[in-house]
Design a protein that fits this description.
globular; Rossmann fold; about 170 residues; alpha/beta
């Protein structure tokens, strides 16, 4: 089974989890970039996209012409929403099985991460119930990160094994 872990990371937290997941799943790694966020007005563009839900143009740095059986997509939570660059992936891999993860601070009751997972499910998987996980910053930056990534990778592998014969 060919698997790719696709991620957008602004601070490095999502990249860390993506790398751990890729290693556990024996998957390739693909980074999502957004040139608009790298410009001098990047922070303003990010804020605009967060609050207007504008989807920016993104590039996916992935193996050329790669066909995958499973795509694991991860990104940060911004103001209780999935980061706009992740939602911009809606037209990528439309028929491929998916799994999702988000990284967040996870300490504010006003901005819970669960809506971001629901948003990704709707935008990227047509509302399908797919394996998903929330990685909080305290865990990402601790010795628990590898174990949590391994547990999520096991759930992804189990879901993929039980759904192999089902239509996509």
């Amino acid at each position: 089974m060919r698997i790719v872990v696709v991620y957008y990371s602004n601070t490095g937290n999502t990249r860390r989890i993506a790398e751990l997941l890729a290693r556990e799943l024996g998957a390739e790694l693909a980074e999502v970039t957004c040139q608009r966020y790298l410009s001098w007005y990047g922070p303003l563009a990010m804020a605009w996209d967060i609050f207007t839900r504008h989807l920016p143009v993104v590039d996916v740095i992935a193996p050329a012409r790669a066909e995958f059986d499973l795509v694991v997509i991860g990104g940060p939570v911004w103001s209780a929403h999935a980061a706009p660059p992740i939602l911009s992936l809606a037209s990528h891999w439309p028929e491929t099985r998916k799994a999702f993860f988000v990284t967040c601070r996870g300490t504010s009751p006003s901005y819970p991460p669960e809506p971001a997972i629901a948003e990704m499910r709707q935008a990227l998987a047509g509302g399908a119930d797919v394996p998903s996980e929330i990685f909080r910053e305290a865990d990402v930056n601790s010795v628990r990160a590898a174990g949590l990534a391994r547990a999520f990778a096991d759930r992804i592998a189990a879901a993929a094994a039980t759904s192999r014969d089902e239509p996509r």
